[in-house]
Specification:
The protein has 274 residues and is mainly α. It has one domain. 69% of the residues lie in helices and 2% in strands. It has a two-stranded parallel ribbon with strand order 1-2. It is globular.
């Protein structure tokens, strides 16, 4: 299908799009995470509290399954929204963000490499946070063992990978870069139709988006907040270098899938929930 050219949006329009998308998704999560952290700190030391990442949503098996599927599905609506916003402006969002299968081998290799590096780093930051008393005990899942438990946890991991990497990295980098270039006086952007917009001040965008990532993880405590900030810096730097979000989605999926599905083994080894 051929995409028709669309007028470039004004800075005001883009700002409102950013506000609306974040208010519907991870910006809202960041606000709730800060309030939740303050709530927990006002009740008892964080070291004595527990955060469950995938709680059961109903005592009855098939209602729990229904709620889990609905939760995953509706959480991905903001992803569809940002893809739609890119599409109606005359750009293919899959090509623009590198969310396609043009380079499967390289994307998979980078994804696995980031998974290994960030997985080891996550365990180290978590252990340090627990030792310092600034991180809650994390329970990957408290779902009962049903036939659908593992598939739902895998879809939950995929949901997080798509939601966070597409919105906080690919789309937000593109939109903030666009605002920077407009501010610098570039009314017509060469990269508008051909691909993602390159931020004029990439470090500013990189740090800002990493802070957002760290903030919406603060409900787990200061340790995961810091760890995810570092993860945001690394993931963002990789994206700026290669302009492909697929490796980030792969790495994020593997990280969460391991934490969710392998949680009982990790807890038994003393790595989580201790």
């Amino acid at each position: 299908m051929t995409l028709t050219a669309a007028p470039v949006p004004s800075a005001k329009t883009v700002r409102w799009e950013i506000v609306i998308v974040l208010a519907l998704s991870l910006g809202k999560s960041a606000v709730y995470a800060v309030v939740n952290l303050l709530d927990k700190m006002s009740q008892a030391p964080l070291s004595g509290q527990t955060t469950t990442l995938n709680p059961a949503l109903d005592d009855r098996q098939y209602f729990d399954l229904t709620y889990q599927v609905l939760d995953i599905g509706f959480a991905l609506v903001p992803v569809l929204l940002v893809m739609h916003l890119v599409w109606i402006r005359g750009r293919n969002p899959f090509r623009t963000f590198g969310l396609d299968f043009r380079r499967p081998g390289r994307d998979l290799a980078w994804g696995i490499g980031l998974f290994v590096a960030m997985g080891l780093g996550t365990l180290a930051v978590y252990a340090a946070g627990r030792a310092a008393g600034v991180t809650t005990a994390i329970v990957g899942s408290d779902l009962n063992e049903y036939w659908w438990t593992t598939p739902v946890l895998l879809f939950s991991a995929l949901r997080h990978g798509l939601l966070e990497e597409i919105i906080v990295v690919a789309w937000l980098f593109d939109r903030l870069g666009y605002l920077q270039q407009l501010r610098a006086g570039f009314g017509e952007l060469r990269t508008w139709a051909s691909g993602a917009v390159v931020p004029g001040h990439p470090v500013t965008v990189l740090v800002g988006c990493a802070i957002l990532r760290g903030t919406y993880h603060l409900y787990q405590g200061a340790g995961p907040g810091i760890g995810n900030l570092i993860m945001g810096l690394i993931f963002g730097a990789v994206y700026l270098r290669y302009r492909r979000v697929m490796p980030l989605v792969v790495a994020h999926f593997l990280l969460d899938a391991t934490g969710f599905v392998a949680y009982p083994l990790l807890a038994e080894l003393g790595l989580f929930g201790t």
